[in-house]
Amino acid sequence: MAADPDLDGVLDQGLLFKITGFPSPTARFESLTMFGVDDETISFSQHGVQLEFDLRPRPGLPYFPYFTAQKFLLNWALPGGVRLESETLLARTGFSHQRFSLTFSLGFVSFELCSTFQVEAHSVTLTPSLNLDCGWLRIFAQVTGQPPGFIGGLVVYGVRVRARMGDLSLEAIYSLDEQEHDLVLDPYVARVSLEGCRPGEGGRALFRADTYFHEGPEWGRLDLCLQGPVTSGLEVWTKTGIDPGGVCSWGLGARWRW
What we know:
Shape: globular
Order of helices and strands: EEEEEEEEEEEEEEEEE
Number of strands: 17
Radius of gyration: 21 Å
Largest sheet: 8 strands, antiparallel
């Protein structure tokens, strides 16, 4: 079971060693080293209110975390609102891709010029989009092109609403085209999130509940996260996923900053 099976930078299970640096006031560099475990040697099960974590050593299969992928990220804000990003990904089997992207805006329209290099392929894309964000409301929209370089139309593919009340924040997002634009966790089309956060001396204490829905709307899943500081620079958290069948996932993690 890889730490990041879809290689999107989000760990589904495993360990992450992250280094962040700032080469300049407008540049940010990150190194993410990811580790995973084999799902034939570790399992999680739920029986009523009893939770079981099973470790089964088997010859030839690693049950300790092993290297999964290495990712290097560079985000650089240039003058004029232009943003340059670089992503290098080395998977367990070797080189995966090198991606460069340049994002700039012309009024309400943003453009992303992306160049991706792979072992046997190279692609260049230009993606226009609209900046329809007024803080509490954002409309996700994409501009469609029409030869020879004119704007042909507008496609709305999602809506997001945010509200804040003291230490509590509420966010609701609905995806109109989840196949082409990944706004929420698959295979759902909507998410409602409630988050409470309170800063402390050793860090921040956080509680978050993410509720996912299918079309209908029909309830599909509830993710609960509780995070808090142990000492200065050390945070621990636990995450639990619940679907109509019961507890479907559970995780425990820690983050150490120095």
